[in-house]
Amino acid sequence: MTLPHQIVAPASPTRWCLVLHGSLGSKTHWRGLVRRASTALPAWGFVLPDLRNHGDARGLAGPHTLDAACDDFADLGASLGHRFDAVIGHSYGAKCALAWVDRTQGALDHAVVVDGNPGARPVPGGGETVVRAVAMLTAMQGAAFETRERFVDAVMADGLSRDIAAWLGMNLGHDPDGAYRLRIDMGAVRAMLDDYFARDLWRVVDDPPGSVRVHMVLGGRSRALDADDRARVLRAVAAHPGRVRCDVVERADHWVHVDAPDETVAILIDALRG
Q1: Dihedral of CA 102/103/108/110: which sign?
Q2: Which of 80, 113, 143, 260 is most buried (CB neighbours < 10 A)?
Q3: 51 touches 92 (CB < 8 A)
Q4: Cα 58 to Cα 62: distance, rounded to the nearest angstrom
Q5: Backbone angles phi, psi at 246, to 5 degrees
């Protein structure tokens, strides 16, 4: 199965960028930002897939790992006839981006890693935003909502913002009986996260392979990377000037592109022009 995807591109792009959403996202979640960035990047075409077990990419066989995700990207590139010159990824998609750099041994120009931790670590507790959201949606699996607004209210009651609640609501499907239900398999998503937390890809940041330039983008209020992780990123920046960069979007939490869309667009444009 070729991953369902959307393309944002000028008439004749000469370069292609793979854009990978995070856990609980879909191919539509970065579309608006990519459209804005593309106006300043006329040479670039962007491919936005649904990751396995997200959006319309349902029913793929396991195991649901980063390696399987990279197989999906390779199949997608082959089906489109494109070589990906860059990759952008957020959260789970950020680690997929690092895994893709590792798989291709740096045979691309840019990797923009948005608030994804490169390292292996124990599955964190409920304080981390994405883990809280996964636990909350797992509890909601199968629940019916009369309207999208009822879902948004339920998410906000769990402590997440309206913007994040509306964004998560894009995972709802409208049943023939008129109810709204989650169309995402939370068991498969949890399997993906288990592998995400088990994998260590710091080597891609510490010593980028090939010619790739790694651009780390961190949410200032996010807990995805702790103080030691952030210090390690800065050591990589110092060790590889021009090859590793880091931007901290101070007012953003983990969903950087939701909390600070203007800053995120500017960073993407700067990274792909670099």
Answers
A1: negative
A2: 113
A3: yes
A4: 11
A5: -145, 130
Alpha carbons 267 and 55: distance in angstroms, whole number:
26
Q: Which of these, 242, 243, 249, lies nearest to 266 by C-alpha position?
A: 249
Give per-residue pLDDT as tens, 112-150: 999 999 999 876 654 467 778 888 999 998 899 999 999
**Which domains are assigned to the chain?**
5-123+188-273 (3.40.50.1820), 129-184 (no CATH)
Q: Which residues of the chain have pLDDT under 70?
A: 123-128
Q: What is the mean pLDDT of the chain?
A: 93
Residues 6+ apart with CB under 8 A from 169: 148, 151, 152, 155
Whole-angstrom CA distances from 230 to 91, 117, 144 are 15, 9, 41
Here the contacts of 158-162 (C-beta below 8 Å, separation 24 or greater) are 158/132, 159/132, 160/129, 160/132, 160/133, 160/136
In this prediction, residue 67 carries a pLDDT of 97
Contact 56, 77 (CB under 8 A): no
CA distance 269 to 2: 28
